């Protein structure tokens, strides 16, 4: 699980490997990323689908759980063999604490 505040961002990178040889493997087309709940923030996915950045919604004030699911096609050609991340990428978002409060008093 990744824990961040609304003042941070989380970056993710995918690296597929062959389960037999352990060598790097390719997928057929870009993987599809899904953020649940979508209201937790913004998920920006790279054009090749192999990386993404999550920026939490700055309005979050309570601890919020979110998850990112990534699905790819592991079979080249007309067939489809769905490859998913092991479970979902879990994120806990907490509201950022106020660092400094400045008050100015003026005479009226």
Provide a compact summary of the structure.
With 108 residues, the protein is mostly beta strands. It contains no helices and 8 strands.
End-to-end separation:
53 Å
CATH names the topology as Immunoglobulin-like
Main sheet specs: 5 strands, mixed
Average pLDDT, all residues: 82
Q: What's the architecture in CATH terms?
A: Sandwich
What's the number of domains? Answer: 1
Instruction: Work out the number of β strands.
Output: 8
Low-confidence stretches at least 5 residues in length (pLDDT < 50)?
A: 100-104
The helix content, as a percent range, equals under 10%
Into which percentage range does the β-strand content fall?
A: 35-45%
Order of helices and strands: EEEEEEEE
Mind telling me the CATH class? Mainly Beta
Query: Overall 3D geometry?
Result: elongated
Structural class: mainly beta
Helical segment count: 0
Radius of gyration: 19 Å
């Amino acid at each position: 699980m990744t824990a961040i505040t609304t003042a941070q961002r989380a970056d993710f990178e995918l690296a597929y490997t062959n389960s037999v040889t352990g060598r790097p493997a390719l997928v057929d087309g870009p993987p599809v990323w899904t953020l649940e709940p979508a209201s937790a923030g913004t998920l920006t996915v790279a054009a090749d689908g192999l990386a993404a950045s999550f920026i939490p919604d700055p309005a979050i004030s309570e601890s919020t759980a979110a998850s990112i699911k990534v699905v790819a096609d592991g079979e080249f050609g007309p067939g489809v063999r769905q490859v998913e991340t092991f479970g979902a990428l879990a994120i806990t978002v907490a509201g950022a604490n106020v660092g400094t409060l400045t008050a100015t008093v003026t005479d009226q």
